[in-house]
Design a protein that fits this description.
Blueprint: H1 10-26, H2 29-49, H3 63-94, E1 103-115, E2 118-123, E3 136-139, E4 152-159, E5 164-168, E6 175-182, E7 185-194, E8 198-200, E9 203-208, E10 225-228, E11 239-249, E12 257-263, E13 272-277
Antiparallel strand pairs: 1-2, 1-13, 2-5, 3-4, 3-13, 4-5, 6-7, 6-10, 8-9, 9-12, 10-11, 11-12
């Protein structure tokens, strides 16, 4: 009588291993520890036959060199974070400059001077970076109304190859053409805004004198916005400058308005600014005068 042969199919092997695994799982730890010790003992001769790779001298560095590399790595990380932050600022400003022509240069503020009628900045970019006199300087702080950065804070007045002086909109010798808007709608009121810095209750304010604004003819209110007008070769899109915080009859001529405006950002807290650089070859032929 022929013996019945047990066929070790893959299914049988799988069931056997599954049963064995469950048995090991249910055994107390003192027994499984012995099994582990036995397994290590019988496999150690095989493991010892496998050659172990030792690190060569080229794979290791001295502690001093490692420290230098670590410092360089951390510096690169810091530079990357600065680049990411500048790209975030640029993206916010570019949403307010829909045309692709203008370039934006970010500069650090080296010095802020707010002494009476003298209001200016010294920034860390100059003619080598494409800057020139008259270019508009923007705040990188977000506009509280729109949440976007890019309010006009002044213009370039002097520059060297690596540094520039920015005359702020609050400086007594600074003026720009502006428009008064309400809720994003042009009121049709244009004029020239002159800086006339005043410190009231420790708040920086500027006074805008717009000639020939007749009280009976123009409805101007507190909280109306003041925008820098488009200027050919310098600014293609009107950008906010400040907000009207007070309006009263002019002391010299009661038929005209006396308007007080404050910037939309805290100028004394500026750490970075953005300069609008327009390539004249790509600028439209329309002047924003």
């Amino acid at each position: 009588m022929a013996r019945n042969k047990i066929k070790f199919t893959s299914g049988v092997v799988f069931i056997a291993l599954l049963i064995g695994a469950n048995v090991l799982l249910l055994l107390p730890q003192k027994y499984t520890a012995r099994v582990n010790y036995f397994f290590v003992k019988i496999t150690s001769p095989i493991v010892n036959l496998i050659p172990r790779s030792n690190p060569s001298k080229n794979d290791t560095v001295k502690k001093s060199e490692y420290d230098k590399l670590l410092v360089q790595y951390k510096n690169l990380q810091a530079d990357l974070e600065v680049i990411i932050e500048k790209n975030r600022i640029l993206s916010g400003i570019r949403q307010k400059l829909p045309k692709p022509g203008p370039a934006i240069v970010i500069a650090n503020v080296s010095k802020i001077t707010l002494e009476g009628q003298l209001n200016e900045l010294i920034i860390s970019k100059g003619s080598d970076d494409g800057l020139k006199k008259g270019q508009y300087v923007l705040s990188t702080e977000p506009d509280p109304e729109t949440g976007l950065a890019g309010s006009v804070i002044g213009t370039i007045s002097e520059l060297s190859k690596t540094m520039s002086r920015v005359k702020l909109v609050t400086d007594a010798n600074h003026n720009i053409k502006v428009e008064i808007w309400r809720d994003g709608s042009d009121l049709g009121i244009s004029g020239i805004m002159w800086g006339n810095n005043k410190i009231q209750a420790n708040i920086l304010k500027l006074q805008a004198n717009i000639p020939l604004i007749v009280r009976k003819q123009y409805d101007i209110r507190v909280d109306d916005s003041v925008y820098a007008k488009r200027k050919f070769g310098f600014l293609e899109t009107p950008l906010v400058v400040g907000q009207i915080i007070a309006i009263k009859p002019d002391d010299q001529d009661p038929l005209l308005w006396d308007i007080t405006i404050t910037p939309v950002v805290d100028i004394r807290a500026l750490t970075d600014v953005a300069i609008v650089i327009i390539d004249m070859d790509t600028t439209s032929d329309e002047e924003g005068e």
